[in-house]
Amino acid sequence: MIKSEETDVGQIRQKLSDSPNAFAVIVAGPSGVGKTSMCQGVLRADSGVRRCVTTTTRPPRDDEVEGLARHFVTVAQFEAMQKRGDFVESAEVHGHLYGATFDAVAKAMSGGQVMLMDVDVQGVAAWNEVLGDRCVTVFVVPPSLDVLAERLNARQSESTSAFRLRMENAVSELVQAKNSDYVVVNDKLEKAIADLLAIIRAERRRTRRMCLSGLNL
């Protein structure tokens, strides 16, 4: 039996109904802008922030443990999960499939936790649709396109055609920054991590996330 995506959305919202302070911070931006490094820095600095354990068809690296780093599946298994509607969002990146399941998201946010995810720009709409006002979107931008080009060049893993494609995509994706809740300029990584931590601290203090019943307000 094929699951309904609407049913899964309802289940996530039901599971989180007793945790008004739970929310997700979805970090987006062009390839090479540093969003993954920023998220890693936040996870090291704030023990109250959790990552979502995503599912992928990529082979595990030597230091990756199944269920902790990611869930590793075959292409056939992943495609079956897609057909069942298991994923909030899924995409192909560099020849491998990646996705975040509804179950993994609910687990990461259970108990009123903050879930942190870095995603492709195209995936932001899906997260907003599923999580509603529990979704906080942060768009990471480079200080300039020249700096972004330097960062991509520093990887030394891009062919000329791939580099040009990434830069073309970056220009078109940066337009989406205006649709996000926050924008962080990643000029210095430490400052960008501090800005992201500040956003999370501020969002924890949103009135709708605070338990004020004991104050008789």
Overall shape: globular
The total of beta strands comes to 9
The SS-based structural class is alpha/beta
> What's the CATH architecture?
3-Layer(aba) Sandwich
Number of contiguous helices: 8
Average of pLDDT: 86
Under CATH, the topology is which? Answer: Rossmann fold
Tell me the CATH superfamily.
P-loop containing nucleotide triphosphate hydrolases
- The helix content is 40-55%
Amino-to-carboxy terminus distance: 47 Å
What is the H/E order?
A: HEHEEEHEEHEHEHHEH
Sketch the major β-sheet: 5 strands, parallel
Strand portion, in percent?
A: 15-25%
- As laid out across the biggest beta sheet, the strand order is 2-7-1-8-9
Number of domains: 1
Could you tell me the radius of gyration in angstroms? 18 Å
Indicate the low-confidence ranges by residue numbers: none
| Name of the level-1 CATH class | Alpha Beta
Explain what this protein looks like in three dimensions.
The protein has helices at residues 5-15, 35-45, 75-84, 102-109, 124-131, 145-154, 160-174, 189-204; strands at 23-28, 49-51, 55-56, 71-72, 87-93, 96-101, 114-119, 135-141, 182-185. With 217 residues, the chain is of the alpha/beta class. The protein has one domain (5-202): Rossmann fold. The N and C termini lie far apart (47 Å). The model has no long low-confidence stretch (mean pLDDT 86).
